[in-house]
Each structure stands twice: as structure tokens, then as C-alpha cells.
């Protein structure tokens, strides 16, 4: 049967996207709860959480190949009817997660203080960030196991189980966080402990899911080497993101506690909505990988068109909603009047970028599903070097504050949009085949 021009039924797309939305939204939603709890301790603890949380995200997000790379490899195998091989990819990704995670938690104990001081300068903010980070990164192996688990389950088009697992883990964290911060009196450190407990529960449930699949659980070094090889471009791409985002947080921290705290509020909302928009991309990644693994280029291209339009519409809706909430939402995260006054300098950039983000994240998912990591790497690094980084550091030099930082983000997103649309139009990303995806040359 010809599939030229074939479209995925909306019901099928939503069946994958809606549970993925829950998974993607759960972690940043917990961070928003954490931000709201810590925000009422004052500007310095909130700024410490901003810096420590950014460093934690830097570490975990740098290893997204455990999630996105695993999905790309497993989706092609699943599309070719090789489910057992697809799940085995998840086993090896989990072994990688354990090894890398243990190394990270050891490094955190040694370097948390000097890294925090490098970014924020010596003082109260750096001290608070380092205390939070040393506890939080004890959960590095658990976070990475969860990433690997999400990756292989998405690849076999099962987004319901990850949702249940993540909700259990983050629900436990959300209940424990205010109890540990206030009644127990642990302050900022209490939020890190609560997070650690929830992460441990989620990781244990993902390991159990592999065990019940009854596949070989021993480590297989050639498969892990192949996964690391594919992860090369994804790591470099993520590094470009993190250099930009870390620079923005550092500049905000050096501008003052109020700017750092205001940036934390708007930035966490940006990250939350980014992952909400990314739910369509997760569905696209799984479906595109399976279509190409089954030899259907036209089906993959049809999915790309669909999710791009859906992403645009979704972004417009979110922009309108958060424009309407501009006078209400920030006050939920802090009662500090100086911080609230500063939030407005970033808010309208955040609102206006939602439609652009909807298309960008949708196409990211398409190209990740196709294994087009090399192009994504190059496009992201170019956009960062030309758009984001120069504006961030000019903002520090000329005291442009949050407006300068968020202008840099706007340039970054617009450049990414152009490069992704050009690639989508070319069709060169849609390469069929049943072999696991590897990094492009």
C-alpha cells in the first residue's frame, strides 16, 4: 500500500503525546513547587537554588543521549518488529547511566564549592548553591536511570508506564519538600533531600520494568560503545545549550540577588513550557524513528509536517494564556517586591517566544527520531555562537540586565527556527533503514 502523503491519525499522536506531556511536565512542575517553597525563604536562598538548579540541569541535560539517543535507536528496531532488541538497548543505556552517575556524584563532592564560586563569585549565593548541589547530585545515578528508562519505553511507543513512574517519584518529592524545608527546619537543603528520595523511588521502578521484560540484563560493552558513539553529536549539541543557559544564570547572579531570583522564576516557567511543547516532539521522535525503520520516508515526512503545525498552534495558545497571567503568576513564586518588579523585564520575551518554540521543539523531535544529530549539533552551536552568547555578555558589560539576557535567547530561538525549517524542506534527514541509528559523520 502506498503511503505517499499519509498522515498519522491525531488520536495516535495524542495517545503518545499526552502521557509524554505528563512525564516532561512532572519534573519542571516539581521544580516550580520547589521554587515557590524556597522563594518564601528570601532572595538569597532562591538565588542559590537558581544557581544550584542550573548546575544540576547542566550535568543531567548534558547526558540526554541516554534518553533521546536511546529512543532513536529503539524506535527503529521497534518499527522493524524487533522489540526484544529494542528493550536490550534500554538495558545497556541503564548500565551506562549507573556508571556515569556514580562518577558524577563523586565529582560533585569535590568541586561543588569552586564551581559555584566561579559562576557567582564568593558569597552567600555560591555557598547556598554548593550546599544544595552536594546533596542533589547524590541522586545523579537515579536521574540518569530514569532518563534511560524513558528513552527505551518511548522507543517502543509506551509512554503510559513512564508517566505513572515519574508521577510516583515526583509526587513523593512534592509532598516531602515543604515538610523538610519548614516543619523540619532544613531550609534549602531540605528541598534537595526531598528531590533525592523521589528520584530513588522512580529509578527503582524503571529498573523493575526492565527486569519483567525478561531480556538479558548483563552489560554488553559493544552496544554501550555504539550508544556512546551516537551520543557524541547530542552531547556537543547539549553543551551549546548549557553554555548559553549557564552564562545567562551567571550574568543574572552577578547583576544582583534580585535579578538572579527574577530570572529563576521566569526561566523555570520557560523550561516548564519548553517541555510541555516538547510532548509533541516526543511522539514525533518515536513515530518518525519507527516509520524510517519500517522503510516509509513519506510517512516520516507527513509526521514532520503535522507536528510542526500542531507545535505552532500550541505555542500561540500558551503565549496568550501566559500573557493573561502576567499580573498573577509571578507572585506565586516570591513575595519579594524587588524581585517581582524585576520579573517584568523578562516576562514579555518569554510570552512572545512561545509560538517560535512550538515549531522549534517539534522539529527537534523529528530530527532526533531520524538520527539527524549532526545537523542539530551544528545548527545549535551556530545559533549559540552568533545569537545568544554575544548578547548575554554584552548585557553584563553594558548593564542591560534581564532584557539583554532575554534578547539573546530570542535571537538564539529565531536562528534555530530558520536552520530547522531549511533542513525540513530539504528532506535529507529522512533516511530509511532498520539498523540502529548512529551519529552522522
From TrEMBL:
The record ties this protein, via PANTHER family, to:
PROTEIN DETOXIFICATION 44, CHLOROPLASTIC, PROTEIN DETOXIFICATION 44, CHLOROPLASTIC-RELATED
- Known CDD domains for this protein? MATE_DinF_like
Q: Which domain of life is it from?
A: Bacteria
Q: What is this protein called?
A: MATE family efflux transporter
Q: Which family does it belong to?
A: Belongs to the multi antimicrobial extrusion (MATE) (TC 2.A.66.1) family.
Q: Which keywords fit this entry according to its UniProt record?
A: Cell membrane, Membrane, Transmembrane, Transmembrane helix, Transport
Q: Which Pfam families match?
A: MatE
The record gives the membrane topology as:
Multi-pass membrane protein
The protein's location, in the record's own words, is: Cell membrane
Main localization of the protein described in the UniProt heading: membrane
Which residue ranges does UniProt annotate as crossing the membrane? 49-69, 90-112, 132-153, 165-186, 192-213, 234-257, 269-295, 307-333, 345-367, 374-396, 402-422
Is Cytoplasm one of the keywords UniProt gives this record?
Answer: no
Q: Which InterPro entries match?
A: DinF-like, MATE_fam, MdtK-like
Amino acid at each position: 500500500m502506498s503511503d505517499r502523503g499519509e498522515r498519522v491519525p491525531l488520536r495516535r499522536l495524542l495517545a503518545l503525546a499526552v502521557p509524554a506531556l505528563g512525564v516532561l511536565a512532572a519534573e519542571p512542575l516539581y521544580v516550580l513547587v520547589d521554587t515557590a517553597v524556597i522563594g518564601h525563604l528570601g532572595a538569597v536562598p532562591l538565588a542559590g537554588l537558581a544557581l544550584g538548579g542550573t548546575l544540576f540541569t547542566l550535568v543531567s541535560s548534558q547526558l540526554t543521549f541516554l534518553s533521546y539517543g536511546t529512543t532513536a535507536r529503539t524506535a527503529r528496531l521497534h518499527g522493524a518488529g524487533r522489540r526484544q532488541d529494542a528493550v536490550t538497548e534500554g538495558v545497556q543505556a541503564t548500565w551506562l547511566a549507573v556508571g556515569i552517575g556514580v562518577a558524577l556524584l563523586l565529582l560533585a563532592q569535590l568541586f561543588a564549592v569552586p564551581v559555584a564560586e566561579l559562576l557567582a563569585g564568593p558569597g552567600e549565593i555560591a555557598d547556598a548553591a554548593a550546599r544544595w548541589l552536594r546533596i542533589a547530585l547524590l541522586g545523579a545515578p537515579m536521574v540518569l536511570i530514569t532518563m534511560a528508562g524513558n528513552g527505551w519505553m518511548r522507543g517502543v511507543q509506551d509512554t503510559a508506564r513512564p508517566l505513572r513512574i515519574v508521577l510516583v517519584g515526583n509526587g513523593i518529592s512534592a509532598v516531602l519538600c515543604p515538610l523538610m524545608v519548614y516543619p523540619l527546619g532544613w531550609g534549602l537543603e531540605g528541598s534537595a533531600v526531598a528531590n533525592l528520595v523521589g528520584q530513588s523511588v522512580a529509578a527503582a521502578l524503571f529498573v523493575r520494568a526492565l527486569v519483567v521484560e525478561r531480556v538479558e540484563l548483563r552489560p554488553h560493552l559493544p552496544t554501550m560503545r555504539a550508544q556512546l558513539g551516537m551520543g557524541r553529536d547530542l552531547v556537543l549539541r547539549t553543551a551549546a545549550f548549557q553554555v548559553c543557559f549557564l552564562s545567562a544564570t551567571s550574568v543574572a547572579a552577578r547583576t544582583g540577588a534580585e535579578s538572579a531570583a527574577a530570572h529563576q522564576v521566569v526561566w523555570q516557567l520557560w523550561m516548564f513550557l519548553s517541555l510541555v511543547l516538547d510532548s509533541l516532539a516526543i511522539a514525533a521522535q518515536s513515530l518518525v524513528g519507527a516509520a524510517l525503520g519500517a522503510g516509509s520516508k513519506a510517512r516520516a515526512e507527513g509526521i514532520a509536517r503535522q507536528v510542526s503545525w500542531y507545535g505552532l498552534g500550541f505555542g500561540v495558545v500558551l503565549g496568550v494564556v501566559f500573557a493573561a497571567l502576567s499580573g498573577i503568576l509571578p507572585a506565586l513564586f516570591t513575595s519579594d517586591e524587588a524581585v517581582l518588579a524585576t520579573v517584568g523585564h523578562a516576562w514579555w520575551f518569554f510570552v512572545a517566544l512561545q509560538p517560535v518554540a512550538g515549531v522549534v521543539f517539534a522539529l527537534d523531535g523529528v530530527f532526533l527520531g531520524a538520527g539527524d544529530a549532526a545537523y542539530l549539533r551544528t545548527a545549535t552551536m551556530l545559533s549559540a555562537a552568533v545569537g545568544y552568547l554575544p548578547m548575554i555578555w554584552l548585557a553584563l558589560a553594558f548593564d542591560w540586565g534581564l532584557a539583554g539576557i532575554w534578547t539573546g535567547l530570542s535571537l538564539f530561538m529565531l536562528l534555530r527556527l530558520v536552520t530547522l525549517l531549511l533542513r525540513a524542506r530539504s528532506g535529507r534527514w529522512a533516511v530509511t533503514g532498520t539498523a540502529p541509528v548512529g551519529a552522522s559523520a
